């Protein structure tokens, strides 16, 4: 019997602590607006559109953090099925392999297991979204010039989590009764990155038919 979503997706299974928005800030208000639109049952293609008069960088920042939280939760739930033994390579089927590179430990693209890749990815994103020089939270502090470029890299790598989960662990998603929730999260993510052209279309090829 499928578990209810409250049992499947609980805070104890998050891969990393949730990043929260400070109440009273513009970004918190944008987050509430985005969540209200999602819960209203509006078409997801309409939900991702920039609200009139709002800053595109604020809108992107809110969604990057929210997607980090959601995908973090999905993978945290799946992590018991994604092990060094079951997933010795971070991949999306036989055709796609994802190697890790950063500016510190792995300066060249390096083959990692899926669990290792996920750990590196979540640590890296957490470091970026907590960096005030990249994701400023103080009123009047501008976003850096490379902000959208950084977000593109974050979202591209988060997309790879969907690729791995769908291709290698979809049976587990179905067995947990989480298929509808994961599908909705993926569609929301997909329509957002397409709306603002934030991920190269070549990266989307492994799941090109999924939104339909």
Automatic annotation (TrEMBL):
Key words, A-Z: Kinase, Metal-binding, Transferase, Zinc
Q: Which residues form a coiled coil?
A: none
InterPro entries (UniProt xref) = MOB_kinase_act_fam (IPR005301), MOB_kinase_act_sf (IPR036703)
Q: Does the keyword Transferase apply?
A: yes
Q: Per its record, what are the GO molecular function terms? A: kinase activity
Gene3D superfamilies, per the entry: MOB kinase activator
| Amino acids binding Zn(2+) | 82, 87, 164, 169
The cross-references to PANTHER family, in alphabetical order and at most eight, read: MPS ONE BINDER KINASE ACTIVATOR-LIKE MOB
What's the name of the protein? MOB3C kinase
- Gene source species: Bucco capensis
**What gene makes this protein?**
Mob3c
């Amino acid at each position: 019997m499928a578990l209810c979503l409250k049992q499947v997706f609980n805070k104890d299974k998050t891969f990393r602590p949730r990043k929260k928005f400070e109440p009273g800030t513009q970004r918190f208000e944008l987050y509430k607006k985005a969540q209200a639109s999602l819960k209203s049952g509006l078409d997801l293609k309409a939900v991702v559109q920039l609200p009139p008069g709002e800053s595109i960088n604020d809108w992107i920042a809110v969604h990057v953090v929210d997607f980090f939280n959601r995908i973090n939760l999905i993978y945290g739930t799946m992590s018991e099925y994604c092990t060094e033994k079951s997933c010795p390579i971070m991949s999306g089927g036989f055709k796609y392999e994802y190697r890790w590179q950063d500016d510190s430990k792995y300066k060249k693209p390096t083959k990692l297991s899926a669990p290792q890749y996920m750990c590196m990815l979540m640590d890296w994103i957490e470091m970026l979204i907590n960096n005030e020089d990249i994701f400023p939270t103080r009123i009047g502090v501008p976003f850096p010039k490379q902000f959208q470029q950084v977000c593109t890299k974050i979202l591209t790598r988060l997309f790879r989590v969907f690729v791995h989960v769908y291709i290698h662990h979809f049976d587990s998603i179905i067995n947990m009764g989480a298929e509808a929730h994961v599908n909705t999260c993926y569609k929301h993510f997909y329509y957002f990155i397409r709306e603002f052209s934030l991920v190269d279309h070549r990266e989307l090829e492994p799941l090109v038919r999924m939104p339909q």
